[in-house]
Amino acid sequence: MRRRQFVAGVGSVAATWPLAARAQKSPARIGYLLSGAANSAAATDRLTYLADGLREFGLAEGRDYNLETRFAAGDYSRFTDLGRELAQAGVSVIVTNTIAAVRAAQALRPALPIVMSSINDPVGAGLVASLARPGGMTTGMATLGEDLSPKLLDFQHMLLPKAIVLAALFNPANPSNPTLVDEIKKRSGAIGMTVVPVALPSPDALDAAFATMAAHRPDALELIGDSGTFDVSDRIAAAALALRLPSFAASPIYAKYGGLLGYGPAPQALYGRAAYYVKRILDGADPGELPVEQPTQIVLWINMRAAKALGVEVPQSLLVAADNLIE
């Protein structure tokens, strides 16, 4: 064999090695530790957005990855055991959507990369050192709950200019929620509104929470940002409608589930962005060196069916400003 032919032959074989390696490589295991129930609409949407995002980065389920899901069903005390289950299942990265889940995942040994899909103030919660340089094994998306509160109150006032009592439904197990309630109290007081905090420690307490609300006779209801609370958005929206109580949330998808108005990060962009971090980590990136991002696309959704049922007239200015009017 001539030397040129031999070299060419070796080159052609070498060119096939990466393809062969990819073909033989087992799919990565991705863990998703969710606060809600497996059959909830919110959990289904979040899983869909993650799968869509991974597909955009060229990752197909079954070929490139397998998804291991664990659901706390509103019981945040389960996160430690569920995180341990994911580690024992051999996941390469864990995606989470609430502060307690991140902390449970961070306690695993050996440590695993963690991707936050939507976390209130991760720096203030002590989950990362900073947004630019998170450090450790955690990165992902931070929400803008504290920044969206003033605008959400503006929308409430535009829709209900005579409202004077606002119920704030919050999860006491979420350390960011009391801070958000205090912020709403200050801002509401400045426009002459009184805030009644109503605790929702678990989905099982929903009836009791609404009994408390009914006793206070509020004019409006605001859901404080928490993935466990948002997981039962459809039940909350239906219960609020039964009380003829206009309800709002700093999450646009709340309007899809029956709430009157939702304002916040575009849900598909927020939850789907977790796929970017998963892909980078699977490719070998250090999660502590990947900056935590904040959403750039903020949208307003209004449920016109709810408005009609509540007898709320939506001003023309809001109709024009809305990104989605749900008929």
Concise summary:
This protein is of the alpha/beta class and 327 residues long.
Task: Give a structural overview.
The protein is an alpha/beta fold and 327 residues long. The chain folds into two domains: 6-142 and 268-289, Response regulator (Rossmann fold); 145-266 and 298-326, Rossmann fold, CATH 3.40.50. It is built from 14 helices and twelve strands. Strands 7-6-8-9-10-11-12 form a seven-stranded mixed sheet, with helices on both faces. Strands 2-1-3-4-5 form a five-stranded parallel sheet, with helices on both faces. Helix 2 links the parallel strand 1 and strand 2 (65-71). Helix 2 packs across helix 12 (274-282). It is globular and about 60 Å long. The termini are far apart.
List keywords for this structure.
globular, alpha/beta, 2 domains, Rossmann fold, 327 residues, five-stranded parallel β-sheet, 44% helix, 14 helices, disordered N terminus
